[in-house]
Amino acid sequence: MALVSRGSVNCNSCDEEATPLLDGEPAEPAPPACCSARWGLATLMFLGFAVVYALRVNLSVAMVAMVNVSTVPPSNNQSSREACPAPSGDANSSGSEEPPAVPRFLWDSATQGLLLGAFFIGYILTQIPGGYLSGHLGGRWFLGGGVLGTAVLTLLTPLAAQMGVPWLFALRAMEGFGEGVTFPAMMAMWACWAPPLERSRLISFSGAGSNFGAFVALPLTGFICRTLGWPAVFYCFGGAGCLWAVFWFLLVSDDPRSHRRISEQERDYITRTIGTEGGSHGWSVPLVPMLLSLPLWSIIIAQICANWSYYTLLTSLPTYMDTILRFNIGENGFLSALPYLGAWLSAVLSGVLADCLLERALLSTTAVRKIFTLTGMLLPAVFLVAVGFIGCNSMAAVIFLTLSSSLGGSSSAGVYINQIDIAPRYAGVLLGITNTFGTIPGIVAPIVVGYLTTERSLAGWREVFYLSAAINAAGALIFSAFGSGKIQKWALDTRGQTPGGSPAEQD
């Protein structure tokens, strides 16, 4: 067998995990990360996804202020002994602290679930088209345009709410439609920008903006509702999204070659280490081999399962804090945000740790992705079960929910970036496919929560947490059995070149 030069891989051994930098040390040291173009892009993406999730979750807390719960009649079957007592000994005070002039609505639990799930109906429609077009045309306009469009629509939320439930439902679905392209566009851009030994930390850091956005938005929404009224929430966050878009379009380029401020050393480092398997793809994609790929289906199933618990907490945790633990709206926003602070820190640290393991060749890419996925799905399931057991112990509930979400952040260095491992040049398309399936829980979970908690009882929420834990554990086990970190045969450059850019050497 002929020797294969460092940075290349034999095409007859496509099952080997090989990328230009994972086969050995680079010929030249990597340019410093500080003030680099690639980390500047990661920072802007981080802030962009913080805005994206602020726009996504603000309704979760604002709805506590928007709904006049005192006039929504409870079900005849509701058992008062199942509800937890208010911490101060009085009834829920969430509505008493708001400015009196703001409108309030008579939305029951099922209606609230439908409105919270409306976003994902639009979100699911643009995942695959967004990933496909971003992979071919570049992700800059799709990511920036998705955030800007969602921000503009957010400014119209108070008007839509006053016009009626159908209008607000349609507006939230349109917001999801605009935001659906953002994550596939991010992955398509990192296919051009992320060196293999920096993938985990760059992608995990930029994607961790979503948890940071939820952490900031949840308490800030509660504060704004108390002081200015819930309509101001949508004006503030919508304006922030528009401001971010200005910086994005001024400073970002689709790839290193077209960036106006990148150093020649960094540009050469990125393009050399990514090789031909990164970058954009043509108009045609190997759709049939993709759909027959077991590693891809393991990602899809794992993301569906992980997203069920994630979206359950993202959209419904403020309601649990309000109706069961009986926190007022200020406490609600702050305590609902704690799990996302932990998830943000966990995601960033897991990305650094994953790259360290790969740099030192301690574990294969497959092993790294499976370890972080198992940690980020099995352990959170244990703490969700614990939340169901502790009942009205509000301090323990907050601690267990925070631990569950914090540990869940480690899966960002596992299944959530696995698309770029198995098919770098099609990473945007694959993320669109996996996110399309992964969005289904965003539509279904809030509706299921709404029906399970119609009685606003502790027993109903216990079922919510047990169901989420079981689904999470199932996804972790499936990915551990069938997941892979190897570049798939159908993802190799059709020109017969290897990931390092050198022609494949034959036996």
From TrEMBL:
Keywords: Cell membrane, Cytoplasmic vesicle, Glycoprotein, Lysosome, Membrane, Symport, Synapse, Transmembrane, Transmembrane helix, Transport. GO terms for molecular function: symporter activity; transmembrane transporter activity. The keyword Glycoprotein applies. One of its GO terms (cellular component) is basolateral plasma membrane. Residues 54-487 form the Major facilitator superfamily (MFS) profile domain. Residues 72-81 have a biased composition (Polar residues). Residues 72-99 are annotated as: Disordered. It comes from the Eukaryota. It is found in: Basolateral cell membrane; Cytoplasmic vesicle, Secretory vesicle membrane; Cytoplasmic vesicle, Secretory vesicle, Synaptic vesicle membrane; Lysosome membrane. The chain crosses the membrane at residues 46-67, 114-134, 141-161, 167-190, 202-220, 232-252, 290-311, 337-358, 370-390, 396-417, 429-452, 464-482. It catalyses: N-acetylneuraminate(in) + H(+)(in) = N-acetylneuraminate(out) + H(+)(out); N-acetyl-L-aspartyl-L-glutamate(out) = N-acetyl-L-aspartyl-L-glutamate(in); 2 nitrate(out) + H(+)(out) = 2 nitrate(in) + H(+)(in); D-glucuronate(out) + H(+)(out) = D-glucuronate(in) + H(+)(in). Its main location: membrane. The keyword Metal-binding does not apply. GO terms for biological process: carboxylic acid transport. InterPro entries: MFS, MFS_dom, MFS_Na/Anion_cotransporter, MFS_trans_sf. It is a multi-pass membrane protein. Receptor for CM101, a polysaccharide produced by group B Streptococcus with antipathoangiogenic properties. This is Sialin. It comes from Lepisosteus oculatus (Spotted gar).
